[in-house]
Amino acid sequence: MFTGSKKELLDLIKRNGAISIDDAVDVVELAKTTVREHFLQLERDGYIQRDYVRSGPGRPSLQYQMTQKGNSLFPSSESAMVRELLKYLKQNGEEKTIEDFFETFWDQRIEKARRRMDELSHDGIQAQVEALMKMLEEEGFMPEFNIDEESEALTVKECNCPFSEVVKETKLPCKLEAMFYKKLFERDVERTSYIAEGDYSCTYDISLKAS
What we know:
Blueprint: H1 4-16, E1 18-19, H2 21-27, H3 32-44, E2 48-53, E3 61-66, H4 68-71, H5 78-91, H6 95-118, H7 125-139, E4 143-148, E5 153-158, H8 164-167, H9 172-185, E6 189-193, E7 202-207
Helix pairs in contact: 2-3, 6-7, 6-9
């Protein structure tokens, strides 16, 4: 996804765990203003986050480290391993265990989303949906949304499936993701596009009309 100086800085943060702007400038051949601007942009996009680290007397130093979204940019065999685990459990008759795990996992996601949205319950549906989108972004869904005020409808598009390897073994995540929106909004939900069937995104149309 990234090339050039931003890729170099992400690699540097990944290798060091956390790094300050000054320390990054000492390593890369970039001006301090350029490094600072890159760090701020990567932070705004959710790839890195700031932290204040105390390493002795005096004021703690500002350092940057990877977020979950940032770590997802780097190669990982984790998804393939999970797929093999699911295959192993199915071969050993543990379908119920698999189902219980995914249902529990999605219930936790629903509660997490509800908490974030409830915090903005007085700010309107736009703010609540934006909070939901931030959570989905952190999870790797690359979400987009549109609210049609005239028809009182919300469209959520998930442009990436972070469970793509798992879906090759079980469609439970697909079923539960549709239920995720239905339970979260307590409204009718229709999935109008589906990555697992060759579409470029999973799209959910959600009615916002009062029951």
